[in-house]
Write a structure and sequence with these properties.
The complex is a heterodimer of chains A (about 375) and B (about 180). Chain A is an alpha+beta fold and about 375 residues long. Chain A has helices at about 40-45, 55-60, 65-80, 85-115, 120-140, 160-185, 190-195, 200-210, 215, 225, 255-275, 330-335, 335-340, 350-355, 360-365; strands at about 1-5, 20-25, 25-35, 150, 155, 295-305, 305-315, 325. The model of chain B is unreliable at about 175-180 (pLDDT under 50). Classes of the chains: A alpha+beta (about 375), B alpha/beta (about 180). The interface of A and B includes residues 16, 63 and 129 of A.
């Protein structure tokens, strides 16, 4: 028996994330995820920040699509303080979060391809992500950690030319999706390596608390945007892709990859609808400079690219939160690993972990 | 034709073919600065931007730099992200495993000085990579734009070119003696 460490660096997860594996020849006897390599104490920092001052830290909870972290926090604080968000702000939030989802899924697919040695698609994914980043730069002035969704609205109004540029991007990505579908699933590489790999049945997925694409790959149609709509998602028409088990086993790694690719086209559909009628009005409801939330607690959930990202905030009536807690979707995935890695091939470990799209900063916070 | 920076040149028509002349240390640093393989210390948010640098748009490979995942094959360590107390020993160990000469580029506020997660705010992160390993170039930003990383790389290349590289280089102080011991 030898102990092999997968990580902490590498493309199997985003950020430093280590899995300690006890091997039995080429097979895995047991695998234990090791968390905490990126524990930065974000929740503790919240206790000494003002309400608005904590917004940049919510970027860094899930930095691949940072606007989801902003949004979850903003929704929770708005719920606590009873702030009405203008229609225009909600609509811009939908556009921003869906663009963030496209960017995040592209990176997830690219990393998956890179783990399998499909370097071409990795480069393609980075190229498309650049375009999404450009749009964010137009919107918020930053590429990655844009504290865009703020309490009471968004940071800036949409800039001139943003709508046209976004339409251009959507057209581009929609023509690219069939090509990528061909590139990924037309050849043998993904099919042979990923079909039947690490299947998660729907009871197991619920037991482990999976959410997001990982849960939907098991065939369950659960989505916060449908079940508990926020920001006016109930008025938008979109589908929720689920894993159909085309390759034989439902909920296997190939299904998880497929669901992500389909979600990109769903997201682009949502953005297209949202762009149609952006309501006039303010993009930010007036918030006093010394904002104090009333005493109490509130919770809000959003559908982040990795699953349900929930934020719980408690206030004691002060200028900052008393407690902020993040319920991160990637953390639930970890409980699956000891079971799912046992008996797997050592060479498949990185592929299995990558197919769940684990983001280390979300796990550790 | 003489390139001033390297004090190198080509002597034409004096010899049957041609001869390249230079000082040995200039030649060595010329070779070194044009093939920097960097170790991707993908620690946090900056890691995503570091990925983008190697992507098609910014294309760090036109400067002869390629990403490496093994410290044994790396000349440069790009520390991209927050260094937590749990990660710090691993970072130092990986730095020790890199062959000489080795350089460190600190990318982003977290590894420059702690940034958003400096000791004033976070109880679990190291306030800067220079607290644990010697840093050659600091690139500011949270996260820095990929262009800024390229600029940092060019600054490092200048620094390498200006060193007397033929003298066997040791990393400063105790760092040179650091070996991969757990």
């Amino acid at each position: 028996m030898a102990i092999v460490s997968v990580g902490p660096l590498g493309n199997h997860a985003i950020g430093p994330f280590r899995i300690r594996i006890e091997t039995d020849g080429e097979n895995v006897r047991s695998g234990h995820p090791e968390v905490g390599l990126l524990h930065r104490g974000i929740e503790k920092i919240a206790e000494r920040m003002t309400w608005a001052g904590f917004v940049p830290y919510t970027d860094r909870v899930d930095y691949v699509s940072s606007v989801h972290g902003n949004l979850a926090y903003a929704l929770a604080v708005e719920r606590l303080a009873g702030i009405e968000v203008p229609e225009r702000a909600s609509r811009i939030r939908v556009i921003a979060t869906e663009l963030g989802r496209i960017g995040s899924h592209l990176l997830a697919l690219g990393a998956m391809a890179d783990v399998l040695g499909h370097r071409t698609f990795f480069m393609f994914a980075l190229r498309e992500r650049e375009r999404a980043n450009n749009l964010f730069e137009m919107l918020a002035g930053a590429r990655l950690t844009h504290s865009y969704a703020r309490i009471g609205g968004v940071a800036f109004d949409i800039t001139e030319g943003f709508v046209e540029k976004t339409r251009e991007f959507l057209e581009y990505i929609e023509t690219k999706i069939p090509e990528y579908s061909d590139l990924l699933f037309g050849g043998d590489l993904f099919r042979e390596r990923l079909s039947g790999l690490a299947p998660v049945s729907s009871p197991l997925a619920i037991q482990a608390g999976l959410t997001g694409p990982n849960l939907r790959a098991s065939g369950l149609k659960r989505d916060v945007r449908k079940d508990d709509p926020y920001c006016g998602y109930e008025r938008l028409d979109f589908g929720v892709p689920v894993g159909a088990g085309e390759s034989g086993t439902q909920g296997d790694a190939l299904d998880r990859v497929r669901v992500r690719l389909r979600e990109i086209s769903e997201s682009s559909d949502i953005v297209r609808q949202a762009l149609k009628g952006i309501p006039e009005g303010s993009f930010q409801s007036p918030i006093p400079r010394l904002f104090r939330a009333p005493e109490g607690e509130a919770c809000a959930s959003v559908e982040s690219p990795r699953g349900t990202l929930s934020v719980y905030v408690r206030s004691s009536g002060g200028r900052g939160p008393r407690r902020v807690r993040f319920r991160a979707p990637s953390f639930s995935v970890l409980s699956l690993f000891p079971g799912i890695l046992t008996g797997a091939q050592l060479s498949d470990v990185a592929a299995i972990v990558s197919s769940f799209d684990v983001c280390a900063s979300e796990v550790d916070r | 034709m003489t390139r001033k920076r390297y004090e190198m040149g080509i002597l034409e028509n004096a010899l049957p073919e041609y001869a390249v002349f230079s000082r040995l240390d200039r030649l060595i640093s010329w070779a070194r600065e044009n093939s920097i393989a960097y170790l991707t210390m993908d620690l946090a948010c900056c890691g995503v931007e570091m990925l983008q640098v190697s992507g098609g748009r910014f294309d760090i490979e036109r400067f002869g730099s390629v990403p490496q995942v093994s410290p044994r094959h790396a000349d440069l360590m790009i520390v991209a992200g927050t260094i937590t107390y749990k990660m710090a020993p691993l970072l130092r160990r990986l730095y020790g495993e890199m062959p000489l000469p080795k350089y460190v580029l600190s990318m982003g506020s977290c590894s420059n000085c702690g940034g958003l997660f400096s000791w004033e705010y976070s109880y679990s992160s190291v306030s800067g990579a220079d607290k644990i390993i010697p840093v050659d170039v600091f690139v500011p930003g949270c996260p820095p734009r990929p262009e800024a990383v390229l600029h940092g790389l060019l600054a490092l290349r200048k620094r390498i070119a200006s060193r007397h590289a033929a003298v066997r280089e040791e990393a400063p102080g105790e760092w040179g003696k650091e070996r991969a011991v757990k």
